[in-house]
DNA sequence: TTTGCATGGTTGTATAATACAACTATATTT
DNA sequence: AAATATAGTTGTATTATACAACCATGCAAA
């Protein structure tokens, strides 16, 4: 009986396993820097870039259920890193912005992360770097497109 | 005040966010096929390939603490998909092998997964496929190398 | 050979992440 | 005005997971 997948799928499986291993840090409960988890930094960073953001936008970014978003955001508000205001256009919605403290912490964690990113960069051949990053973007996009139809990876909205 | 990372790090951050999003399926508690979660399939598949495996080898594969491995493996034994035997060379160690049922389920889930993988494959340009997969392998390797020194992503042993 | 340390694994306990369902309040459509 | 949809929160339950303590066996050094 054939219990193995074909080579091509074995290759893909190995890549998924690898991705699962290296993204473990992203879902680790322990704060990796300045008392902020990776998930929380994702929120801070997204808001730093967009200046302000609604909670509904975060669901997609974090790929979690909306109640989970609330619970990830709350501690950041309690720590005074985020401030929430009513959105002008829609009084149901909450707009999140960084406080001064939030900006400071975001910067500190960015530095901490920069050290890690630098190490990663040092471990890939410099001449191939743009192609490698582009390849990963393509791959991630491919998974997102495929996942929509598959319950195993259905994208949450 | 500069709260943004430089472009290069922003690029990497986006990639980590993307990876975090698409690997969500790998840690979803819900079984995606045949009552088996992705994590559990990782175990079945690894054993299918190596024929037999010790629990200690699984810690690294799954990148989890050893007690977690025990708890991931147990339900598979209870469902009769895995059998454990004492290792010959070391009577402390447990050797895991697939049962007939385990092989059957492994194959079924493989098929289910193959459908997903096929969709992914269809979403990447065929001529670039080998380079893309290779690029990802390099990237994953780079992260693993870097992570060793960084508490944020320290590899568990 | 005995003593002490290392290794493979399990179990107790606690916590974090997370989903789902039910709910409130506001918008939008009919 | 009524029905439906959307933004967000809270109650509740479950899963994943770690850490520490533990047992048993193996190995190395005294």
Brief overview, please?
By secondary structure, chain A is mainly α. Chain A has helices spanning 7-22, 38-50, 55-62, 66-78, 100-122, 129-147, and strands spanning 52-54, 82-86, 94-98. Residues 150-157 of chain A have low confidence and may be disordered.
Describe the structure.
2 copies of one chain form a homodimer. Helices cover 59% and strands 8% of the residues of chain A. With 157 residues, chain A is mainly α. Chain A has a single domain (7-123), classed as Arc Repressor Mutant, subunit A, CATH 1.10.10. The first copy, chain A, has a 3-stranded antiparallel β-sheet. In chain A, helix 2 (38-50) crosses helix 5 and helix 3 crosses helix 4. The radius of gyration of chain A is 19 Å and the shape is globular. The relative contact order of chain A is 0.10. Mean pLDDT of chain A is 85; it is low at 150-157. At the A-B interface, helix 1, helix 2, helix 5 and helix 6 of A face helix 1, helix 2, helix 5 and helix 6 of B. The structure holds a DNA duplex (30 and 30 nucleotides).
């Amino acid at each position: 009986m054939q219990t193995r997948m074909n080579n091509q799928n074995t290759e893909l499986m190995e890549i998924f396993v690898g991705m699962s291993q290296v993204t473990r840090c992203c879902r680790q409960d322990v704060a990796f820097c300045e008392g902020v988890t990776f998930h929380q930094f994702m929120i801070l960073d997204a808001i730093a870039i967009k200046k302000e953001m609604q909670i509904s936008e975060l669901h997609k970014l974090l790929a979690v259920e909306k109640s989970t978003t609330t619970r990830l955001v709350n501690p950041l508000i309690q720590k005074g890193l985020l401030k929430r205001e009513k959105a002008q256009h829609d009084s149901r919605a909450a707009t999140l912005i960084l406080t001064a403290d939030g900006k400071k912490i975001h910067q500190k964690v960015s530095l901490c992360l920069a050290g890690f990113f630098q190490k990663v960069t040092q471990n890939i051949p410099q001449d191939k770097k743009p192609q490698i990053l582009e390849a990963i973007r393509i791959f991630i996009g491919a998974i997102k497109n495929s996942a929509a139809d598959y319950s195993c990876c259905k994208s949450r909205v």
